[in-house]
Amino acid sequence: MPGTKREIMREKLLDAAEVQLIANGLGALKARGITSEAGVSLGALYTAFEDLDLLILGLNSRTIAELHQALAAAVSQIEGPSYQLEALALAYLDFAAANPRRWAALFDHQMPPDTPVPDWHLAEHGALLAQVEAVLESLEPDLSADMRALRARTLFSAVHGIVKLSLERRFVALEPEAVRAELRDFLRRYIAGP
Amino acid sequence: MPGTKREIMREKLLDAAEVQLIANGLGALKARGITSEAGVSLGALYTAFEDLDLLILGLNSRTIAELHQALAAAVSQIEGPSYQLEALALAYLDFAAANPRRWAALFDHQMPPDTPVPDWHLAEHGALLAQVEAVLESLEPDLSADMRALRARTLFSAVHGIVKLSLERRFVALEPEAVRAELRDFLRRYIAGP
DNA sequence: ACCTAAAATGAACATTGTTCATTTTTTCTG
DNA sequence: CAGAAAAAATGAACAATGTTCATTTTAGGT
To answer: Taking CA A191 as the corner, what is the angle to CA B163 and CA B174, rounded to the nearest 5 degrees?
Structure first.
């Protein structure tokens, strides 16, 4: 069973990094902070991960897995595609509100220029989208697969945009319940369609 | 006329920073790169601006002014609120596509923790939103001012989300014309709503 | 028990943003 | 216009960061 040793170190580092991320946000993730929190040497980070960016991708991987579960749970408790779509959006909002820093890291983190995001991580994002597509398939069975993928992405993007700017408080503050109502109304309008 | 001297230096630095931003993106904006491009000393940056973040806010201020003009031009050429809303969204997409790095800097840049965005810059973002609100006022005159502001923000967020994820190519690449069509369809559905 | 390969270590390096004593320039004043 | 005072510009120095690598420690197999 090769790699078990490295795997233990990786998880120790990820645990330590998660503590820092939750406490102080993505910008507070420093190589020295993580390794000292984990009780290992500075260099250990670079034998366990290629670099700090890959460690952060590992963190985001964990977060996506949790988010994926939360969305799946929300959909499974509801009947009817349009209600399921609403449940997805509200679960997304809830997850973001409950885990603001880990959720923000998902989108705030950027790879260095000319460094592609690894395929395995793109696939994880894709799995989130697939959840929306699955519900869309029930809602509009006549759509081609391509169109459905595009529609899912549009919907995801719009909901994400609403949730993101709401939580960022770039503009005026907004009460949580107002955001929920607005999301619901938004979906109702969008689904009502042409 | 106090501050004229400092103003010249500020613009020289902003011009130099803009060159770097357009060429290599937000991540390539370094104090030394900007000052050497501007032909001034490293310390000059800190007599003209409080720090690098405030310089970047100055850059974003320029970009917002241009974007504001582009949106205003788009609205003014069209009659009828729902077409104007569509024109706004498409102009937003066009601006983002034509100025990807400056547009990305608008939202990718983050102030350090516990450092608030200055009011004058929040006001500039607010002016963008006000353009959407103005069109919404024609479209749905019965909405209260509060509800109209919220609705404008929702709409802006959704359009922004679609445009952002489209240009980021986080998921699969997408032809420009498909994004335009999707944006149009999105607005038609949203506006049609009950 | 030895030996080898893997892993862990932390000192050293390069690159950042930022500060500040010093020098240069500008502006005011007599 | 001369000289002083104020403002601005300078770049060396500092602290904080990610990353590397020669060295030391540890693990596992024969």
So the answer is: 30
